[in-house]
Amino acid sequence: MLTDDALEFLREYHLATLSTLGRDDRIHAVPVGFTYEEGIVRVIGTGGSQKFLNAQRRGRATICSVDRARWISFEGPARVRTDPDAVAHAVALYAARYRQPRVNPERVVLELQVERVLGSAQFRTPRA
Length: 128
Prior knowledge:
The protein has 128 residues and is α+β, with helices and mostly antiparallel strands. It has helices at 4-9, 50-58, 84-97, and strands at residues 16-21, 27-32, 35-37, 40-46, 60-67, 70-81, 107-113, 116-119. It has a single domain, classed as Pnp Oxidase, Chain A. The protein has three helices and eight strands, in the order αββββαββαββ. Strands 1, 2, 3, 4, 5, 6, 7 and 8 form an eight-stranded antiparallel β-sheet that branches.
């Protein structure tokens, strides 16, 4: 589904915008760091923040990252995980892409299972 160029882009330091739907159907869009691994996008943060509440309530999210003319967007079902192994794995992925995050005992991870990818032509494999 993704080209080598896309996978390289997803290893580079780029931030993104995570969009979720709030209780009132308004779009909640916030800047985040994120990682991609084997069809799953991960975002770490403090449990109870609006992005995680929305993902838990509505079960879907979209994330889009842009660097000049290069861009990629992922859509799919989202869930919030609190188990220590899932959070530790997400933190390790984040540290490899960005930097080691500060200690946060309230940290959770949003996992978006990629259903659809949009993006620059060089990031998508041709459809058969």
